[in-house]
Amino acid sequence: MRRLLLGPLIILALAPAPPLAAQRELGRFPLDRSKPVPPKSDILAAWQARQQSIPRFRFTWTEEQTHPRRWVPNPRYPERERAATPALFRDRTYRVTKTLAVDGSRMRYSLELDRADDLDSAQGLGEGKRFLYMSVFDGQSGITRLTSLNDSLPPLVRQSAENVDAQNLDLRPIMITLRPLDPVLGFLLVGRAVTNQMRMFYQGRSTMLLEERRDPWGWKSLLWMEPERDFLVSRYIHSFEQRVMVVIDIDYTQDPRWGWIPSGWRVSQKLTDGTMRLVTRATVTSYSINEPISPSEFQ
């Protein structure tokens, strides 16, 4: 028998101790002793059932973004509009419109960003830019297009043998809900993940943890899930060497036909000065489930 110290509480356990990050999270929130932690097999079964019931979907959403100084890129999940801008002298805010369409393994993702003139100082970014970024994957190969919407310059077009935005950070709330086990779009590291031993209350709901064991570089992911809502992921944490680097909090709406659907999310990231900063607030403006999508949209 082993004693686990979780904050001010002492709990007796017969199973091995959960990973360190899970222990720390459990110690910060009230425990729910009334319900057991379901096995990982229950999670996979629920995820598989949801994924099979929704082969096609389309989402449109807006993001209120802050591009802060001291932003830290992460090695797993691309963030196109941030990585394309050189290191900033000061914080800037943008409103970005995004769309996503998925049909089986085919995917179309786009974002439109309008950057105002910024010529007033040496810290400015220059003339205004309004552009459309789009990536499509037809199931076998992909192509990206970056098009200027305020001049006649030709677009920047690149071809690829893979879906380059399959793991884009801003798509994670949708993909972790509707494509969690997809070998390209889903939670690719589910095989490395283990459940914790005790539930806790988060935002008034009974929550369990699915924690990835660290990779050789030191990165890992931690999923906060709600068993009573079909194992929805309400919070997603990306950490390095036990230091939280990215936190995504996800909200849902209950569709009367299709169940729980993401309605918005908030992304916070750690900056180089060690502080956490809210950098994205997303709001879903429309979605459709299992409606036909023309194959031409993926070309």
CATH fold-level topology: outer membrane lipoprotein receptor (LolB), chain A
| Global outline | globular
Major sheet size, sense and barrel closure: 15 strands, antiparallel
CATH architecture: Clam
Rg from Cα: 21 Å
What is the averaged pLDDT score?
88
| Contiguous runs where pLDDT drops below 50 for at least 5 residues | 1-20
Strand content: over 45%
> What is the name of the CATH class?
Mainly Beta
The string of secondary-structure elements, in order, is EEHEHEHEEEEEHEEEEEEEE
- E-strand count: 17
What is the SS-derived class?
mainly beta
| Helix coverage percent | 10-25%
Distance between the termini: 59 Å
Number of domains: 1
The helix count comes to 4
Helix-strand blueprint:
Blueprint: E1 2-6, E2 9-13, H1 20-28, E3 31-32, H2 40-53, E4 56-67, H3 80-83, E5 92-103, E6 106-115, E7 129-137, E8 142-148, E9 156-160, H4 172-178, E10 193-195, E11 199-202, E12 205-212, E13 219-226, E14 232-240, E15 243-255, E16 259-270, E17 276-289
Antiparallel strand pairs: 1-2, 3-11, 4-5, 4-17, 5-6, 6-7, 7-8, 8-9, 10-12, 11-12, 12-13, 13-14, 14-15, 15-16, 16-17
